[in-house]
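Sequence in, structure out.
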Amino acid sequence: MRPHDRPVSVFFLHVSSSGGTAVCRLAQEQPCGRVPTCGANCNLNCRHPWDWRQQCVSPACVPPTRPCRPPHKPGCAGLRRWVAQRNLTFVASETMLMEGALCPDFVYVTVLRDPVARLQSQLERMSSQPNHKLHQLLAQPLVLNTSVTTSLMGTPALDNYLVRLLLGPPVFFLPLRTINASHFAAASRVLAGFAAVVPLDGLNTDGAAWLRGALRWRGAPRKANHHRLPGEAPPRPLVQPAASGRRLSARHQALGERSLRMLRELNRYDLQLYAEATARFRQSVRQGSPPPLELRRPRCTATDAAAGPQCPMQGRRVAARSSYATYYSSSYAGGGRSYS
């Protein structure tokens, strides 16, 4: 394959609360790595968990008070041109795929967590009464804007979120219980086009080995926030065990078994996607180490490698990670970058 025919970058679909921040941090630590920003995450402008609002129209959604300004023109061609001009090696999105399909000039990677366990973690972390919150949301056919700072925005978060992420805006905003077998089949085809779909419980072992082999990365993902990665010791207990076997603060409840049954039934297509992807990844592990992917790679001298990651969206090279708030504020109206 000629160098200019190679994929331009790794595109990481960051499913919230699934170890994605650990992967981003590892990408930032690679010698001569070029990521959009060296802040707390690697997400592209307008690809944060709350940026689903950019695609939702009134009356279903309240428009954001500070509209996000994407850094590139819409579609695969615009994204490819923008990434290639900046010679980025890794980009990420923590919201739905906007392009309508996988772009041919990118290698797609993601980490998946059991969908119900992921939802349980989010609900118990973000609400002191998660059972009440869940039943309140599920009592209406379509609820949005319940959170403008996380991925727990309402109906899409609770009803086959992964299917919705993979199929983009036309499916993401469908009402409750309208995701069907045809959507599952389409999402399954999209996910099969990923170079790797790593289960979270294998991220520190087989997943790290895949990153080292296929992407020629160094090191392994490490805990990057207050979530625990598989294999890590649990935190010191604070109160009596919750019904789920995990410990919560005295002010927070745990999801009950009835709520968990509802989530398992409602998210049956996401659970099938997760089972398919996990089986496919484990089969690939049994076949041996992956060959290195043929990606375009920036020139990397010893001086470059020692200087730390380059962060073109911040306009400078940094050895230590800069403030995420600085990047966030520069991504929106008044400080956003124009198309190039």
